[in-house]
């Protein structure tokens, strides 16, 4: 006979089995392939882990997912740290997953590749979306830590190459908890301020974990949506982040970004000198060409004396022809008159002769007026052409003078001496090094202050830091 105390209910028996499994079987590492992956609305993941012969049910609760950066998929080979248990409600054996990582590749590396492929398929890396740098840089926004060496390196390079641009620092942290959100907020603030011509996102070198904030999707999408051109300068030259692919331009280092964003002032001055020389030569050549053209026009325009002589000669020929024609007419008329006189003796020829004389006089007067009109027309045309030529010469000369004045004013604005004349000064130590910080000078040392009209030599008595 059996003992009544040895009879278990189903739930009691399953609870006993569960306690035995949990107490006797330790947490262990297993390797297998994910299948039947289900992501529940509560955030928990349920899947089977299998090999070539069998499979076991697994549960990965939401709180244990916080260190998983990649996205598990069916068919993926993984390594899990799990504790065995018996799910008493359904009476089946399962594993509670505490840690999950891919086999053959690191957790962060896989997450990096997955996000990279995702954003690339959406077109965030396409060159068609890359914004070019503006030709003129007045204000540079820098997203970095205010206490790090990166911002100091950028300021040093910018002051050396192009001290005319303003630098706006949007302070942030580059790693650790909350760094992604702070970097994104700083980027949005810089972009929406409307003050920055270009924005540099900068950080020093580090491991993949140290640089992970720049591999987050939220920061990548913020860079893509920014209206201001973005330059990424993250880590060393060998370091690559998602932010580098989305940014408009990638610089290998923060210092390289500073060099890339602004021109060299010495190179600008050299180019300005070259442009001034080319402008002067072009002006001289243009003036020479116009002078040559003017000389050619002068040769083509006949002188008034030659015109008068030409028309006088033409008038003489016309007068000769007129006289000859008049004589012919007179001869013909005389012949007709004689014929008429002979035929019409009863009529007096006096009126006919008078009428013919009047017609001849009128024709002679009209001819003289026509000749005078031609001479006056040509004289007026010659005067108008001379006035038009003088106006063209004056206009071209004034235009070249104006262009030369504009270039001279531009050179004056770029002159370092002009900057000093507005009240700025340059302070150097005994080694002739420019002082940009109180850490580069000590008390009792001598400093030199360069003003627009001379130098001041001083001795440091006291140093106060902000």
UniProtKB/TrEMBL annotation:
Task: Cite the Pfam families for this sequence.
Answer: Exonuc_VII_L, tRNA_anti_2
In what residue span(s) does the Exonuclease VII large subunit C-terminal domain sit?
A: 124-457
As recorded in UniProt, coiled-coil segments are none
Domain annotation OB-fold nucleic acid binding: ranges: 9-100
- Top-level division of the source organism's lineage: Bacteria
Which Enzyme Commission number(s) are listed?
Answer: 3.1.11.6
Q: Which UniProt keywords apply?
A: Cytoplasm, Exonuclease, Hydrolase, Nuclease
Q: Which GO terms describe its cellular component?
A: cytoplasm; exodeoxyribonuclease VII complex
A GO MF label: exodeoxyribonuclease VII activity
Write down the chemical reaction(s) this protein catalyses: Exonucleolytic cleavage in either 5'- to 3'- or 3'- to 5'-direction to yield nucleoside 5'-phosphates
What biological process terms from GO does the record include? DNA catabolic process
Q: What is its main location?
A: cytoplasm
Where is this gene product found? Cytoplasm
Q: What does the subunit section of this Swiss-Prot or TrEMBL entry state?
A: Heterooligomer composed of large and small subunits.
Similarity comment? Belongs to the XseA family.
Give a short account of what the protein does. Bidirectionally degrades single-stranded DNA into large acid-insoluble oligonucleotides, which are then degraded further into small acid-soluble oligonucleotides.
Task: Give the protein's recorded name.
Answer: Exodeoxyribonuclease 7 large subunit
Q: Which organism is it from?
A: Candidatus Ruthia endofausta
> What phylogenetic lineage does the species belong to?
Bacteria, Pseudomonadati, Pseudomonadota, Gammaproteobacteria, Candidatus Pseudothioglobaceae
What's the name of its gene?
A: xseA
